[in-house]
């Protein structure tokens, strides 16, 4: 049934904190199914099949959920079919997915963020022409324009340099000799405009993008370099110390409610086996549940 899969070339890319194994992939898919008690038998299931230097795994099944426009009291369920295809290549992984999410526990244990700078080097090459960009103001003040978007055949002829250093790119679309690409650097999402393709073409696409990420060097397009860049705390080196602290509530609200990049979760300990306090502290037999 995997041969019938046809989706666009859009994936989320991550570095691997530790290598994946047959057992870790099995655990991932078990947790994905456990998050949907009404899950059917698998439509397809593949674990770490090899294509060249890459490994791919996939799962697909049906499950029931309450329609987003009805309350739980309506007792109406809709049947959903979701899938996840993950591709391992050179200590990185790409996720193609629809209607299913990667559990938070797996993400924390195995997945690392790819820096926005590397994604810019892969997507925003020097010959790239920017067609669309979404910007967010760095200020957390309530009295500034929080975000704005531009779209044109060539944004370098439309967007001037004045004031752009106050905005951070949230996502953009470019075209070049290699194709049309879109990305959201903060989430690691990279997509190429194309027809829907099968799983082997997706594996090839993921491997090509990862090769470009690993070998990324130089400088990105001049246009994207004129904007401000967000810096992760993990990238701050030396003896630097923060002088102030503020929470960007607006960005947090967008990440939770609109883009759904962040979920509030709680740990639920399974009932059925006696756990010592040490077991609980170590997190044994625990599942992540979205609130």
The total domain count is: 3
The helix-strand sequence is: EHEEEEHEHEEEEEHHHEHE
What's the main sheet like? 11 strands, antiparallel
- Tell how many strands the DSSP assignment holds: 13
Would you kindly provide a written description of the structure presented here, covering whatever features stand out?
The chain has 291 residues and is of the alpha+beta class. The chain has three domains: 2-112; 116-235, no CATH class; 249-290, no CATH class. The chain is 22% helix and 34% strand. It is built from seven helices and 13 strands. It has helices at residues 22-34, 104-110, 116-123, 199-214, 222-225, 249-258, 277-282; strands at 7-16, 44-51, 54-65, 78-89, 92-98, 111-112, 129-137, 147-151, 167-176, 179-184, 189-197, 265-269, 286-290. The strands form two sheets. Strands 1, 2, 3, 4, 5, 6, 7, 8, 9, 10 and 11 form an eleven-stranded antiparallel β-sheet that branches. Strands 12-13 form a two-stranded antiparallel ribbon. A hairpin with a 2-residue loop joins strand 4 and strand 5 (92-98). Helix 3 crosses helix 4. The longest helix has 16 residues, at 199-214. It is globular, with a radius of gyration of 21 Å.
């Amino acid at each position: 049934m995997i041969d019938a899969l046809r989706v666009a070339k859009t994936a989320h890319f991550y570095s691997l904190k530790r290598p994946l194994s047959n057992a870790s992939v099995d655990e991932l898919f078990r947790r994905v199914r456990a998050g949907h008690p009404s899950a059917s038998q698998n439509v397809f299931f593949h674990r770490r099949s090899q294509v060249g230097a890459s490994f791919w795994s996939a799962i697909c099944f049906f499950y029931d959920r309450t329609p987003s426009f009805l309350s739980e009291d309506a007792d109406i369920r809709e049947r959903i079919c979701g899938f996840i295809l993950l591709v391992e290549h050179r200590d990185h992984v790409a996720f193609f997915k629809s209607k299913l999410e990667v559990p938070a526990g797996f993400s924390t244990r195995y997945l690392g963020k790819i820096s926005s700078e590397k994604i810019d080097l892969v997507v925003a090459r020097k010959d790239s022409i920017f067609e669309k960009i979404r910007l967010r103001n760095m200020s957390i003040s309530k009295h500034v324009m929080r975000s704005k978007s531009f779209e044109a055949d060539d944004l370098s002829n439309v967007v001037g340099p004045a004031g752009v250093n106050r905005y951070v790119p949230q996502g953009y679309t470019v075209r070049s000799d290699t194709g049309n690409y879109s990305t959201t650097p903060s989430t690691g999402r990279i997509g190429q405009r194309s027809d829907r393709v099968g799983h082997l073409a997706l594996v090839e696409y993921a491997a090509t993008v990862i090769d470009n990420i690993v070998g990324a060097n130089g400088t990105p397009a001049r246009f994207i370099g004129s904007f401000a860049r967000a810096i992760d705390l993990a990238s701050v080196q030396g003896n630097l110390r923060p002088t102030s602290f503020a929470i960007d509530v607006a960005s947090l609200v967008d990440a939770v409610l609109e883009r759904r990049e962040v979920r509030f979760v709680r740990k639920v300990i399974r009932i059925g086996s006696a756990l010592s306090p040490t077991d609980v502290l170590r997190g044994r037999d625990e599942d992540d549940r979205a609130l």
